[in-house]
Amino acid sequence: MSGKRSTFLISALVFGFAFLYVPILLVMIYSFNEGKLVTVWTGFSTKWYVSLFSNDGMIDAAWNSLRIGVMSATLALALGTPAGLVMSRFGRFKGRTLFSGMIAAPLVMPEVITGLSLLLLFVTLEQMVGWPAGRGISTITIAHTTFCAAYVAVVVQSRLSGMDTSVEEAAMDLGAKPAKIFFVITLPMILPALLAGWLLSFTLSLDDLVIASFVAGPGSTTLPMKVFSSVRLGVSPEINALATLIILAVSAMILISSLLILRSERNRSRAPSTEEA
């Protein structure tokens, strides 16, 4: 009975991974296809990568997405970290239910509603105070920061909730100021969560299409918007080449972040043994 169960579990696992990763592998393979048809292999070639880097519209859209992603992730980290700290360490306080609901709202709100509400907000602000002067990179960055900060807050709150507070309490007993405790003790301990929150926010911003379509303006086309408009006219092998480059870049970021998190965990595990010695 256990043997049949193990066979079923292994088969389900293989099928699940194949369902997820075989299409990605096919995209990478066909990015080197010489022919223009993305489903018929005619020979090996890298001309579509050359064509991609010669496509100024695609390069500009990719650059816009990278800039927006970095700015949105950084701002979301700056806003989401204090929010997660408040939710985890301040216990019950007046307005906590409203505060937690405001944090959770962007997580469950449909993107169409979020995009439309932000568009109306920007239009109203422009009419009342003259800012923002039209839609563009700044409005997309603000919109992405709005929902990315909620994800950072949840990640940081989860990390702080499961963290041992004995070291912080010992530092408080020794007279350390709260700010010093946070920057010297708490911040290094939640660094993996901060890194994970930043990467999650960057990925969500880079991948967003719906909200960016509402709040974008002339000259602020993002990469998902450009790809979507191109795919509507037919899938080009340039899209496969672009997808391959993104997959490689994301894989490299995941590998680097995993190594940094592993290094941080090792240093933290060595600390108690060093103190005991």
In short:
By secondary structure, the protein is mainly α. It has helices at 2-30, 47-53, 56-89, 96-108, 111-129, 137-161, 166-173, 178-189, 191-207, 210-215, 223-231, 237-276. The protein has twelve helices and no strands.
Explain this structure:
The mean pLDDT is 85. This protein has helices at residues 2-30, 47-53, 56-89, 96-108, 111-129, 137-161, 166-173, 178-189, 191-207, 210-215, 223-231, 237-276. The longest helix has 40 residues, at 237-276. The protein is globular and about 70 Å long. The protein has a domain at 57-232: MetI-like (MetI-like fold). With 277 residues, it is an all-alpha fold. The protein has twelve helices and no strands.
